[in-house]
């Protein structure tokens, strides 16, 4: 079989789309197409016409003809099979089957014809495969977009944190300015100044930890009204920034400044005076055929002290000794004390930890050289093509080390007209048609369901379409098992109460 050309022509013989697959002159093609309307009779049942040199195999499509021109030696059954494949492609790319609709979709139709026929021979492809080839989907492009999206999300999270810190710092600065209001007596000024200087108001130490405005303005500067005017201008810019984030659909939690009648103590939320936040983030890329591309853990210990008087403390910690675990402490932390006794304390014992509503990072660590057996969750995907459908089996296996919460496994899908057919699943599923993703969610993975599976079917597609798979979850324990065991007060009195929040989260978890 040799296909000379494939065309969509009007009943008057006008060629709307035409592709030739052998070396022929333009006048030769135009002559063959011009002769076709004269050869087509009315009331005939067959859909082919033969001349001395070529065979016309055609099919009426409303007011048009889909035409395939072959040599007379070709197999008529193969010609009809080629015509049937092309007849399915035309409605896919041209919603309106008239001259205007076909002319608008001419470029897409010509590209689809090229995928169906190569050098005059029909390719063994389906309509779904041709659509995928024309869309030029790339596994590397999808991976690049996922990586870039994760960086964008990380940047947005950083922006939101900075906006919240700026708003909170403005609230704290507003309280300080109220303390220097001109209606106060001189004794009030001296009390406030002595309190700021004696209870952790060291400008260098506070600035290094929390990046708050350095120092406390003097009474003369506070009463000059300049600071008030500058504050109004800055507040307006920050609110515009918040509004722009809201316009993008981001959820921003805004802190409201307490009224002037409220005291500083009344604004402190009812919680423990000292709070410790320990968080580890997983960054891992797993190969679909087994093996790890990269696997590391990054952790942070942050401290929040509500009252100035509770800042004169040290933290006693303990952790699991793991290969590849390395710590990095804040420059104002006593490194020798930390390395020898695992105690987090300031170099200068007369300097307290900064207080306020912000968390202060004190220690960071990283765990490298982890093996595949240390993965909290392994995901295996097995796509297989059968006829006109692709059956995808996905299974997960969770480690005994962690109980995982809010697990979401996102599988990319080819472009679909409807939701995939899910045959079996352990958990819940949701189809994101906008991003063409199937999200498999499990609320909790514990001792009762360390493994699970899901099976679904979609039209025939390339197996690489279902990668990279993105995984997200959280856990209430960490790899390092780092925790604060006690609070050591540096001044007389009982150690203050403290709480600690420990969690493991995914930062970037991909199966490629």
TrEMBL record:
The keyword Transport applies. It is a peripheral membrane protein. Its main location: cytoplasm. The keyword Protein transport applies. Residues 271-512 form the MHD domain. It comes from the Eukaryota. Pfam families: Adap_comp_sub. Keywords: Cytoplasm, Cytoplasmic vesicle, ER-Golgi transport, Golgi apparatus, Membrane, Protein transport, Transport. The coatomer is a cytosolic protein complex that binds to dilysine motifs and reversibly associates with Golgi non-clathrin-coated vesicles, which further mediate biosynthetic protein transport from the ER, via the Golgi up to the trans Golgi network. Coatomer complex is required for budding from Golgi membranes, and is essential for the retrograde Golgi-to-ER transport of dilysine-tagged proteins. Belongs to the adaptor complexes medium subunit family. Delta-COP subfamily. This is Coatomer subunit delta. The lineage of its organism: Eukaryota, Viridiplantae, Streptophyta, Embryophyta, Tracheophyta.
């Amino acid at each position: 079989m040799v296909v000379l050309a494939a065309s969509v022509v009007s009943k008057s013989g006008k060629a709307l789309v035409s592709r030739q697959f052998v070396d022929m002159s333009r006048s030769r093609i135009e002559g063959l197409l011009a002769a076709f309307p004269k050869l087509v009779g009315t009331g005939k049942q067959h859909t082919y016409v033969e001349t001395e040199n070529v065979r016309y195999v055609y099919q009426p499509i409303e007011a048009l003809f889909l035409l395939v021109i072959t040599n007379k030696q070709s197999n008529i059954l193969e010609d009809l099979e080629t015509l049937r494949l092309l007849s399915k492609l035309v409605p896919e790319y041209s919603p309106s089957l008239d001259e205007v609709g076909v002319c608008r979709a001419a470029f897409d139709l010509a590209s689809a014809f090229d995928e169906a026929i190569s050098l005059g021979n029909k390719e063994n492809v389906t309509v779904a495969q041709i659509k995928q080839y024309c869309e030029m989907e790339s596994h590397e492009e999808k991976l690049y977009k996922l990586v870039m999206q994760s960086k964008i999300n990380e940047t947005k999270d950083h922006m939101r944190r900075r906006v919240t810190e700026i708003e909170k710092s403005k609230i704290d600065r507003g309280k300080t300015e109220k303390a220097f209001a001109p209606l106060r007596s001189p004794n009030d000024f001296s009390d406030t100044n002595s309190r700021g200087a004696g209870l952790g108001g060291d400008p260098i130490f506070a600035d290094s930890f929390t990046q708050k405005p350095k120092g406390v303005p003097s009474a003369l500067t506070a009463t000059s009204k300049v600071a008030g005017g500058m504050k109004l201008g800055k507040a307006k810019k920050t609110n515009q920034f918040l509004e722009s984030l809201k316009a993008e659909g981001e959820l921003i939690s805004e802190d409201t400044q307490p009224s002037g009648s409220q005291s500083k103590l009344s604004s402190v939320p009812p919680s423990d005076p000292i709070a410790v936040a320990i968080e580890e983030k997983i960054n891992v890329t797993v190969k679909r055929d087994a093996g790890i591309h990269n696997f590391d853990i990054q952790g942070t210990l942050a401290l929040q002290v509500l009252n100035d008087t509770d800042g004169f403390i040290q933290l006693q910690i303990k952790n699991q000794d793991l290969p590849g675990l390395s710590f990095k402490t804040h420059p104002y932390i006593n490194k020798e004390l930390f390395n020898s006794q695992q105690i987090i304390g300031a170099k200068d014992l007369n300097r307290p930890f900064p207080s306020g509503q912000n968390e202060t990072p004190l220690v960071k660590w990283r765990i490298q050289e982890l093996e595949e057996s240390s993965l909290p969750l392994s995901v295996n995907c097995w796509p297989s093509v059968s006829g006109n459908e692709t059956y995808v089996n996905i299974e997960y296996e969770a480690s005994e080390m962690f109980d995982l919460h809010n697990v979401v496994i996102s599988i990319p899908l080819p472009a679909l007209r409807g939701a995939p057919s899910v045959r079996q699943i352990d958990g819940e599923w949701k189809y994101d048609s906008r991003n063409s993703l199937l999200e498999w969610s499990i609320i909790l993975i514990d001792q009762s369901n360390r493994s699970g599976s899901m099976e679904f079917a979609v039209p025939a597609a390339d197996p690489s379409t279902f990668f990279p798979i993105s995984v997200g979850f959280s856990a209430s324990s960490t790899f390092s098992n780092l925790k604060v065991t006690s609070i050591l007060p540096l001044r007389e009195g009982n150690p203050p109460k403290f709480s600690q929040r420990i969690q493991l989260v995914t930062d970037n978890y991909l199966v490629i």
